[in-house]
Description:
- The complex is a heterodimer of chains A (253) and B (239).
- Chain A is an all-alpha fold.
- Helix content of chain A is 78%, strand content 0%.
- Chain A is globular, with a radius of gyration of 22 Å.
- Chain B is an alpha/beta fold and 239 residues long.
- Chain B has a single domain, classed as Rossmann fold (3-Layer(aba) Sandwich).
- Chain B is built from 9 helices and 10 strands.
- In chain B, the strands form 2 sheets. Chain B has a 6-stranded mixed sheet, sandwiched between helices.
- The radius of gyration of chain B is 18 Å and the shape is globular.
- Classes of the chains: A mainly alpha (253), B alpha/beta (239).
- The A-B interface holds A 152-153, 155-163, 244, 246-249 and B 54-58, 76-78, 80-81, 84-85, 87, 89, 91, 93, 103-104, 143, 146-147, 150.
Amino acid sequence: MTNPGLTEVLMSLILVGLALGVSRWWKISTAKDMSIGSVRAFIQLVAVGYALEFIFGMESPWLIYLALLIMIAVGSHAAYGRVKSVSNSFFITFISIVSGSFITLLLMLLLDIISFEARYIIPLGGMIIGNSMNSSALTIERLSSDLKNNHLAIETSLSLGRGWRSASREYQKKAATAGMISILNTMKTIGLVALPGAMTGMILAGANPLKAVYLQIIVVYMILSAVTITSVVSMELTIRKFFSKHQQLISKN
Amino acid sequence: MSCNKTILELKNICRKLPEINIINDISFIFKTGNIYSIIGPSGAGKSSLLRLINRLDEPTSGTIVFDGNDYTQYRPCELRKRIGYLFQTPYLFEGSVKNNIRYGNQSISDEKIKELAEQTQVSEKLLNSDSAKLSVGEKQRVALARMLALNPEVILLDEPTSALDPANTATIEKLIKQIAERCEATFLFVSHNPEQALRMGGQALLLVYGQLIEYGPAEQIINNPQSDAGKLYQRKELQ
């Protein structure tokens, strides 16, 4: 499988058929989702393949920015869908993901870890944005539910003269940690349980395993940086929606 | 603190939500060293009034004057330390009872903590215990000690004895009267129990549907109300 083409892709449909068969045999009603998902994955990925080929060919910085902006907008919207109950949550997810992505990518460029080329920026940006999207949604979800469920504790603290930041510190920490938990867990078992995606891809493409490992380490550190920034920015922007300027807990959020 | 000076004044305060007027145009002057029982049926706005005075909620209109200044002149943290608030449901933070009492006033000495514990009937043996292991009654007494540790000038109590047995209730009532007699604080005391308001003496304010219907000496408001709503409340026909 050194150079897969459409024939190999069509052959791999047998795997989808196997999954469908297993699902039907055990009467797990996922056949429809599997079929739609398989077709959808094919169309989306082929479309992305053509789009990337076009962007890589053009090598225009504006196209790179545009691609990143579209990915961030889609990621923000997906995260927003999970936290609609918090007011202005699209703005929160968008700003958080932008902060996490741009600071991380900028640092990587300044440190000369990557160069400003579409073939680096776009795939790495995609990884960053995908992880940041989950991180932002998890942080906002955790913070809003903790603040709602612990209003007595928070108001008791406020009534004893503490400021809103002190009264809610415990919940801020828990929310930011919730946003980072996925990458922290991944880092514990990386390479021991399964070989991560970027590394696997490079090895399958014939790269030297040590080179693949170096890239993977960079990817993990990059995601760690991005989700940490995204979680903290999400937490900071969300918590302000729950407190008035008079240090009051706003329960309607 | 000298007695019978104006410490707190409500000026036409209202709190309205889209579907309901929680507090409707209440004006009243509270004087130092007095006990004010706030009585009324469920949903009358008694707890909401305390929340407004502690500035946990914002009035829709009207204002509150505290110690001669509009209360918005104070930073909320400072105001809340000077106007203590004991919630109906006590909440203790993780950690020891002693650390809970110290929560709002980190500079308080161990001796003062012991004194407050004694006043509020919190056994000295409990001071180093885990606050999670306390009964509701014990938690309420610790929460009272914690609030008194702020040394507030006005004390808002939302049914502070609802979880206490008669002996502990009597002790807390006695403590409140002693503090008031020494003019060390002014008490606004929400109670569902008119008998308790009678025992506390002082003034009573009858709230119904967010309005201040009647006020005066507790004995008069409870035993000889003048308003129709007051008479209905006396006959327990307003609940």
